[in-house]
Amino acid sequence: MRKLKVDSAFISIFLFSVIFFSYEEGMSYITQLLAIPLVVLFLVRSFILKDGFIVPLEFCLVGFWLVFSIVSGIFAVDFNVFFNQFLTCLQVMGIAFVLFNLLVWLKSSTLVWSNIFFSTLIMSVFVLQYPTRYYIHDRLAGRLENANLYALALVIAYVYALNRIIGSRSVAMKLFCLSSIPFILYLIGEAGSRKGIIAVVCFGILTMILHYRYIFEKPIIVRLSIAVALIVLVVISSYYIYQSKHIQRLEGVYIALKSGNISKADQSFKHRLQLYDYGWKMAVKHPVLGMGLNNFRVVLAKNSNSSKGVYSHSNMIELLASTGFIGFAIYYSIYGSIFVKLIKLRRKYWKLWEDENKELYITTFALFIIFGLYDFAMVSYQGKLSWIILSSIIASTAILAEQNP
Known about the structure:
1% strand, globular, single chain
């Protein structure tokens, strides 16, 4: 028991540092130092305590992709840019593997989600004390220095909170999570993230689909309470979304898609479409090996002085351009493996598992869908927070697979 508490404490401190320090200029070394105890703990448990470690299919595929990216990098447009990015991926995916095994040993992938929930709330209270420092181009970026990445952390917090409202047996926890929802929605609005707003709406629908059987198995008074709480959440969500000062970013996309006229979208959306188009052309031009990791910005800078240093704003386009169609297929086979496992686990979850495992399955499935949707409009393959979330999803599928029906 003491060993489990020590493991949990190390993980919690590390996760807090990722949210609070790792994206701040000059502060990332704190997170790097706090990752060392996790690695030491992993090595001690694996080789001294003989606990062993697990290498799931997803991390085998990660290894294949890293090897392929080296082959691609040999022919990169700018080898130095590739090499620096490769080292980043190696570090990020390495600590993700360590975290995966620690979570499986603890049998608690929710440790990641709960820490993101509380760390993001604490960080948000802190940044709101400095109303100008943490806004970038009038959008709240928090200490993550990126409004869309900050919105991703908030969406994870939102998913965790909503599932705790429905699934927690603690009334205090239900009330705390319910009271946190308006704050989280306000922050997503301040971040001005279209992905964040869409994810909130999608998850609201998804959670109802996944939870409907669970809800209707409860006594009538519980069903009524849940229904009232959800109605309140829908009203609050609608209010904060439509009152957001950045709602025009979403409205412009909607008008453009409805009319079929892209010119009616805002400049940000049109610029992203141009980047996607350029990235696709580069992928077609280099279909086998791509241009090398992070070389999209290098090639773009050579052809457009106004777009110097810009990445593609889409993980899919970035991987197609960077590692070609083969690298793209290897990387997204990781997602395919997770999806297949979740579909297979659904049969056990739906018919046989207890409420705690149902909630874990629902949260895992929802986070996986949201994370996949985010990849359409955010580069995530090298991100610390992104791989922490993905490793927790992989760990959760492994934990669920081990449960006895």
